[in-house]
Design goal:
single chain, mainly beta, Porin, eight-stranded antiparallel β-barrel, two-stranded antiparallel ribbon
Amino acid sequence: MKKIIVLLVMLVIASSCVFAATTVKPKVVVKPKVVVKPVVVPVVIAPKPAMLWSVNGGLAAGGGKIGLSVQKPINDRFDITGDLGYAMGNGYSVTIIGASLKMPVRERLNAGLMLNYSSYSQAVSIPGVGDITTLGSVGLGVYAEYMVAERINAQIGYDTRLGTVAQVAYVFKN
C-alpha cells in the first residue's frame, strides 16, 4: 500500500509538472523600433567671382615685362587665364599673347601650364633658352603662383620661348 501511495504521489507531482509546463507561456519582449533619419547638412561653397582682372610686371624674355591679365573660373578646381604683355630687352622688344590653366595646390599656392605666342622684334639670344631665330612662335611653360596678400600675387615659371618668367600681379576685385 505504501507503494501505491508513493506511486500516486509521484503521478500527481508528475502531472502537475506536465500541466505547469504546458500552461506556462513564454514572455514576449517587444522592443521599440529605432528609426534613424539621415541629417542633411548643406555644404556652402563660396562662389568664385565671374572674372578677375590684374596688371603685372616683372621679368620675361631676358628683359622687363608689363602686362594685363583676365582670369575666369572653369569649375571649382580650374581657372583659365588670358594674358597680353610687352617685354623690352637690350635693343629688342617682345609682344606676348598667352593663355594658362591653373589649379590650387595648397591654400595660397597655385600651379599652372601656360601657352604663349611671342613675337620678337629681332633675333636674340635668351639665357636658358638659347638663340631665338624664329621671330614669332609658340612656347609652352609651367609656373607656380603664390598669393602674397589679398590682392597681390607673385609668379615664377619657365617658358620654352621666354625663358624664366618672374612677375608680380595686382588683382582688381569685382
